[in-house]
Structure formats: C-alpha cells, structure tokens
Write a structure and sequence with these properties.
The protein is an alpha+beta fold. The chain folds into three domains: about 15-140, PAS domain (Beta-Lactamase, 2-Layer Sandwich); about 140-220, Orthogonal Bundle (Helix Hairpins); about 225-398, Heat Shock Protein 90. The chain is about 45% helix and about 25% strand. It is built from eleven helices and twelve strands. About 25% of the residues are buried. It is an enzyme of class 2 (transferase).
C-alpha cells in the first residue's frame, strides 16, 4: 500500500450503525446479546428513570424475578434499604457519564440476601446518556471469608495480649530478683548462673513487650502523643546505651546530625525514640565486626502530599551480615526473621521491624531498607515533623 493509500485508509470513518451493512449490524447485535447473556455475573440495563429494561439469567436468579417482572421493577425494589443511598449515588454518577463501583446487598423475592459489587456504566446513544448498564459480582462468599479472617486475627491478637499480660507480672519479679542476685556478693559460679537467669529474663521481657506492642498496633489501639521534641535529645538518649554496647562488642559507632535538623520540632518523641532504638539495636545485634553509623538529616517537605514542615531522616548503616534480596520483600511481615538460621544473640521472633514499619506508617512516615548479603544493611526511617519556635522539654521521651 502506497503512502497516499495509507493516508486515505486512516481518514476513513470508523464503522457505525449507520455505515454498517445489515449483515454486519446483525452480527454486531448478536455478539452483544451473547456477551450480555453469557456473562458469569448478574448483568442488566436500566433506563434513565431507574427501571430495568433487560437482565440476564444470573440477574434473574439473584433477584428471584422473571424477566417480565424485572422489566416492571425499579432498581430500588431489589436493593437492601440500608444500601439504597449508595446505589442511588452510583446510578446518578453513571447517568452523569462517569462509571461507578458500589458495594451493596440485593434482596430477592424470597428474602435471600446477596452481597454484590456493582459496576455501573453509562449507556450513551447519539451523544446522550439514556440509561445505565450494570454488572454485579456476587461477593457474599468472599466477604464471609474476609470477615472470618478478621475475626480470627482479632482473636489471635486478644490471645497474645492476654497471655503476654499474664506472663509479664511474674517475669518482672524474676528479672528484678535476678538483678539483685547479680549485684550481690555471690561466689563466681552462682554469680555466673544469676547473670544467665537475668539475661534470659530480660530477653523474655523484651519479647513480651514486643508482642503487646504489636497487638496494640494490630488492634488500632496505639495512639500518638505529639508534643515538642528535640531530635538531638532523642539521639543523646539512644547514644547513652548504644555507645557502651557497641564498645563492649568491639564495634565503632558514630552519630552525625546535619544542620538542617530542627532543634525544636513537633512529633511523638517516644515513638521516634522507639523506632530508632529498634533499628540501632538490630544493627548492633547483627554486626560482628566493623561499624554502625547513624546519620540524621533534615529536608523541607516542599509540595509533598504528607506536607508538614520538615522531613527528618534517621539512617542506620551497618557492616553486618546483610539481608538477601528475596528476604527484603518479607522484611516487615510479623513473625518473620531476616536470618532464619539465627542462633545465640541473633534470636528473636521477628516483630521488631514489623513494629517499626507500622509505627512509621502511624506517624505518616516510612521505613525503607537497602542491603547486600554479607556486606551490611542501611535502614532509613523518614518522619515528617512540624517546626515550632518553643524549645523542647529536657526529656527525649524514651
């Protein structure tokens, strides 16, 4: 075909009912009717007043009506009264030319209720909307399964919280008593045993605390308490335990804060401290040699959708065991450990990072990770903080 012929072909108008031959028009109508009839979901059409004009067998089965009865019915007659407003809004939206998706319930002539997800599409003829074409998917079973999963998850959360509370009280007594023994003048062998008991009890106490914390987050019971916060005071509080721990492990540790980090800001100091503490504790735990570097930077929010005054980024970089690329995908799932073969000091139940990620989300922030197996990891906790002229209180809220 020559270029001129290509141009002529491109300018040829698309077939319309007016330009189609009788055979082509009949074939097109037959294809539409077949598609309408054999759809697996309830399919129907209503006119501009909301009265049904057509329906396939699945729609008739769902409503319990015959086709003749359907053609005399208004959509309001088959919709649950509590869902009429939503369906009416969807109908009006489609009549304005915009497709809509609405969740509702259909009540059949026999009183059977079917939960549906309805897609309403405008029917346009000659440039005007003359009705609505609807496709309703039966989501009753899917919703039932979802509700059962939510109930099971709520039961699991309640169980964990209840058991953890019951364990924490006697455990606190054990930790306290073992600490007294460690500080007493025992012979070397009993002293060694007391330290083992105290260290194990302390680890169990942290585990119980993590379970309670995660249960609260899952149940949406965690409440932020925003107040004036000094980011540098938070870091001083973290450094007070992190530096001695790093030195005891033979690791170098550095804290750097750039000039763009506000001295006085507005946020939840306790939760910021908690996330940073977990990230640094993880870095120290999984780093056997080398260093852990903490860098804090500030940057304007600008036109960010989460706009507050300043983004503060807490970057924790280590030279530890690292995480494989496939494990990074599951990093923030609860009860999943990055190091599945963890032993000794690496033991844990995989809640620390799940808690950090959820707390970051709660603060409208984000937690990201970059890691190379065998070389180390970098975790960045970014959180938006409001600027304030008032000085932060002396406590970091740890």
């Amino acid at each position: 075909m020559t270029p001129d012929e290509h141009e002529h072909e491109r300018d040829r108008p698309s077939p319309t009912p007016a330009t189609l031959g009788d055979g082509a028009l009949a074939q097109s109508s037959e294809r539409y009717a077949s598609m309408f009839t054999h759809r697996p979901h309830a399919t129907y059409s209503v006119d501009e007043r909301g009265y049904f004009t057509d329906a396939n067998d699945r729609a008739l089965e769902m409503t319990g009506l015959t086709l003749d009865e359907m053609r005399q019915a208004h959509f309001a007659e088959v919709i649950h009264p509590d869902d009429l407003h939503a369906i009416q809004e969807g109908f009006e939206g489609a009549m304005s030319g915009e497709p809509r998706v609405v969740d509702a319930r259909v009540v059949s002539a026999e009183g059977e209720v079917t939960e549906i997800r309805c897609t309403a599409i405008p029917v346009i003829v000659g440039g005007e909307v003359v009705g609505v074409h609807g496709v309703s998917e039966d989501v009753t079973e899917a919703n039932r399964v979802l509700r059962e999963l939510e109930e099971a998850n709520a039961a699991k959360t309640l169980f964990l919280a209840t058991v953890s509370h019951e364990i924490r009280t006697p455990l606190a007594a054990l930790v306290g008593a073992s600490e007294l023994l460690v500080d007493s003048e025992l012979a070397p062998e009993p002293q060694h045993l007391a330290r083992i008991v105290h260290r194990s009890g302390d680890r169990l106490m942290r585990l119980v605390h993590d379970i309670l914390e995660f249960s609260g987050l899952e149940a949406h019971q965690t409440v932020l308490r925003r107040c004036h916060v000094d980011v540098r005071a938070v870091l001083d509080d973290v450094a007070s335990w992190a530096v001695p721990l790093a030195e005891a492990r033979g690791l170098a540790i550095t804290f750097r804060v750039d000039d763009h980090v506000p001295t006085a800001a507005f946020g939840d100091a306790r939760r910021i401290n908690q996330v940073v503490t977990n990230l640094i504790r993880n870095a120290l735990t999984f780093t056997e040699r080398g260093s852990v570097d903490i860098r804090v930077t500030g940057r304007p929010c600008g036109d960010d959708a989460l706009a507050q005054d300043t983004w503060v980024d807490f970057e924790v970089r280590d030279t530890g065991i690292g995480i494989s690329e496939c494990q990074l995908h599951d990093l923030y799932l609860p009860f999943v450990r990055a190091d599945q073969q963890a032993t000794g000091d690496h033991l844990g139940i995989g809640l620390g990072l799940a808690i950090c990620a959820r707390l970051a989300d709660l603060m409208d922030g984000r937690l990201t990770a970059d890691s190379t197996l065998g070389e180390g990891s970098t975790f960045t906790f970014a959180v938006p903080l409001g600027r304030t002229e008032e000085p932060a209180p002396a406590s970091a809220g740890g």
